[in-house]
Amino acid sequence: MGILQLNRIKKQFAQTTVLSNIQLDVEEGELITFLGPSGCGKTTMLRIIAGLETPTEGSVILEGNDVTFWEPEKRNLNMIFQNYALFPHMNVFKNIAYGLKIRGIPKKEIARQVAHALEMVRLEGYENRKPSELSGGQKQRVAIARAIVNNPKVLLLDEPLGALDLQLRRQMQEELKRLQKTLKMTFLYITHDQEEALNLSDRIAVMRDGRLEQVGTPDEIYNRPKNRYVARFVGEANIIESQQGWIAVRRENVQVSASPANGAREAIVLEKSFAGGQMNLRMRLSDQTIVTASRYGINAEFEAGQTVFVYWKPEHAVSIEP
Known about the structure:
Layout: E1 4-13, E2 16-26, E3 31-35, H1 42-50, E4 57-62, E5 65-66, E6 77-80, H2 92-102, H3 107-120, H4 136-148, E7 154-158, H5 166-183, E8 186-191, H6 194-200, E9 203-208, E10 211-216, H7 218-223, H8 228-233, E11 238-242, E12 245-249, E13 255-257, E14 265-275, E15 278-285, E16 290-296, E17 307-311, E18 318-319
Parallel strand pairs: 3-8, 3-9, 6-7, 7-8
Antiparallel strand pairs: 1-2, 1-4, 4-5, 9-10, 11-12, 12-18, 13-17, 14-15, 14-17, 15-16
Helix pairs in contact: 2-3, 2-4, 3-4
């Protein structure tokens, strides 16, 4: 049994079912990501864990205790939001110290713990700055420090990097990974960004329409998708009908040749596009299936309208459910 169990969680608003039969065990010290498009129910799931929403059915078990109906402040959890939710009138020190002060921690101990939290997020020397004097990345670090200073058993992160630009987001991903491994704290992370989920997670829970489609390691989710939805949502695999049923083939595993090869299928090049160091070829097979190959250094001589031959190794074709 892990640190957190979600037992058959269901959530309805009026006649609309937002979550259906969510069953998941979270191990202590792991970083698990709820990945899915907007409206799939992932934020509602996080709010139920935090105690901000009550499930229609099911239970939330934290450290062996049924906390389904506990108030948020009674759960040893902290939550980080996309908008940081910092107090604008307080400086960095007071923002981070707020939760400790509410708990009645002595001033000297507050100062020690805040200093340690600032060191963890690499913001030493920023104690007296107001949020308005910080960059987006610095504000995010303050929000993280404010959460971890209370030493929660589980840290909930709701799209925490969504407001940052691409370069800073990638930098903060590495910071979060470093911090999580250093603290050995359990992180529950929400994102709609597939690359972010693959880079950060120990496990990924792929969601659609309030259901868990597949839970697994990044390698399992990417290389062994369970069904068409997961294959297409995470990494945009080609979905192809074969004699054995439906298969998923990742774009980078599709080989393209100008001459026939053993087992290759004839195709017409529909479009060639350059994407930052790699070439994408969009092709149509004789049965009208559209296949895309994305490879670094792919032969640039292929042009739209050209007849080519495509193939892939058997181990790169993964059987999937419709």
